[in-house]
Amino acid sequence: MTEFEGYLVSQLLAGIQTTIVLFIGCAVVGNLLAIPIALARLSSRRWVRYPADAFTLAFRGTPLLVQLYLCYYGVGQILAGIPTVRYSPMWPILRGASCYAFFVLSLNTAAYCSEIWRGAIRSIPEGQREAGQSLGLSKTQIMTSVLLPQAFRLALPAIGGQNILLLKGTALASTITVFELMGAANLVRAQTFRVYEPLFAAALGYFLLAVLVTSGFGFFERRLARRY
Prior knowledge:
This protein is mainly α and 228 residues long. 83% of the residues lie in helices and 0% in strands. The protein contains ten helices and no strands. The chain has helices spanning 3-41, 46-60, 64-80, 83-86, 91-94, 97-123, 126-134, 139-169, 181-192, 196-227. The termini are far apart.
C-alpha cells in the first residue's frame, strides 16, 4: 500500500464512522417522529392538522441543502446572539455543525416518512376500523392494535427507500463542514489534488452502506411475510 493509499483509507475510515453515527441517529429520530406527525395530519381537529401539514410541506417543498444552510448559518447566528445560550455549557455542542446536520436530517426524514405513514394508514379498508369498534375497542386501541401494525407492513418498503435517501443525504452535511465520508474525500482531494481516487472510494463506501441498509429492510420484509 502506497503512502497516498494509506492516507486515503485512514481518512475515509474516520469519515465513515461519522456517516454511520449520523445516519443511525437521524433514522431513529426521524422515523419515530414520523408516526405522531402522520397521526396529526389525519386528525379531524384543524389546530392539530394544519401545523403538521405546514411542517411537512415546508420540509418536502424545499431542498435539503437549503435547509442545512438556513439552519447552520441562520439559526446558528440567532443562537449566537442570545447571551444565555452563548455562555451556557451546551454552547460548544449547539455550535457544532454535526448538531445542525442531525437536526435538519432528522426533521427532513420525519416529514417524508410521515407522508408514507399517512398514505399507508389511509389505504387500510374502513372495515378494519369498524371491526375494532364492534369489538368495543377505543380509538387509541384501534390505532395501535389494528391500523398501525397493518400500516407498518404497507409502509416498510417505502420507508426503506426513504432511509436509503437519508444515507445518501448525509453527504450534504459536508457542505457545512461535517467531517463525514464525503467530507473526508473532499479533504483528501484538496490536499493531494487527486480527484478520482477519493471520490470513487467515497462512492464505493456509500454503495456498501446502502447495500447493508437495503439488506436489513429486506430481512424485516421477509420476516413479516412469513408471519402473515
